[in-house]
Amino acid sequence: MTDRPYVILGVSASMDGRISLGPNRTLMDIDERDDVLGTREEWEAFYSGLQEKHDIDVFMEGSNMLVKETAELRELEPHQGDEEELYKDFLPDEVVHRPGRTGWLAVVDGRGRVRGGYTGEEDKPMLHLVSQGVPPEYLSFLRRSGIPYIMAGENRVDLELALKKMRDKLNAKAVLTSSGGRLSGALLKKGLLDEVHIRFNPVIIGGFDTPILFASPELEENEWPTELEFVEGEIMDTGHITVRYRVKR
């Protein structure tokens, strides 16, 4: 029995491991020209299959999937009053125990960059995973908007602690992320990734700065690659290849 949820990466990539057509592109930029990495119908079928396999409680993304690094952030109202309470978990009962809630849409936002005020769906509300380094006006904004958040880490989100809190406080047993790149690299590096599902598309994108499947610091001299155990795979008539691996411990 583990003290954190089972964590799955489900991602679509080119044959050379690129997860975007270029640098600094987000989910908000996807249109019909991005069909080389999968149509909306194919993505929905892919993730529906993962949902059935794992009974997902939390769909987790990195902030870079939603907000560009170069984006001009929305200015927020200054917080008035004591800031101490802000830097504690905010899990309002009316959201956590909302009738019909089946899961969460979580975003890892250690710098307080996701400021659109999106509250999620009726059955899957938003949950922000934040750090002590975010400004008080951002936390005040989330509270006024009724958006729950979990505090984990000093200047960046402590993913291990955040996952443990999701297990302890929200009874989350399975987390799915489609964020390749930095988030998947961090999860892998910290030993927090349990399973990998990749849908390889028959295209090659290239690019020195185009986001890749796993972005993390280089291996140290005493470190070795993470080993995977093959579970299943399929080659489709279209040339797509889907593979499923478990991460060896």
Descriptive notes:
By secondary structure, this protein is α/β, with parallel strands linked by helices. It has two domains: 1-57 and 173-249, Dihydrofolate Reductase, subunit A, CATH 3.40.430.10; 72-170, Rossmann fold, CATH 3.40.50. The chain is built from five helices and nine strands; from the N terminus they run βαβαββαβαβαβββ. The chain has a nine-stranded mixed sheet, with helices on both faces. β8 and β9 (241-247) form a beta hairpin. The longest helix has 15 residues, at 40-54. It is globular, with a radius of gyration of 18 Å. The two termini are 15 Å apart. The model has no long low-confidence stretch (mean pLDDT 91).
The CATH architecture of the largest domain comes to 3-Layer(aba) Sandwich
> Segments where pLDDT lies below 50 for 5+ residues?
none
Cα-to-Cα separation, first versus last residue: 15 Å
SS class: alpha/beta
Give helix and strand order, one letter per element, not per position: EHEHEEHEHEHEEE
Tell me the strand percentage band. Answer: 15-25%
Largest sheet: 9 strands, mixed
Tell me, what's the shape?
Answer: globular
* Radius of gyration using CA atoms only: 18 Å
Task: Tell me the helix content.
Answer: 10-25%
Enumerate the strands of the largest sheet in spatial order, edge to edge or round the barrel: 5-4-3-2-6-1-7-9-8
Strand runs, count: 9
By DSSP (H or I, 4+ residues per run), the number of helices equals: 5
What is the CATH third-level topology name of the largest domain?
Answer: Dihydrofolate Reductase, subunit A
The CATH top-level class label of the largest domain? Alpha Beta
Number of self-contained structural domains: 2
CATH superfamily of the largest domain: Dihydrofolate Reductase, subunit A
Q: Report the mean per-residue pLDDT as an integer.
A: 91
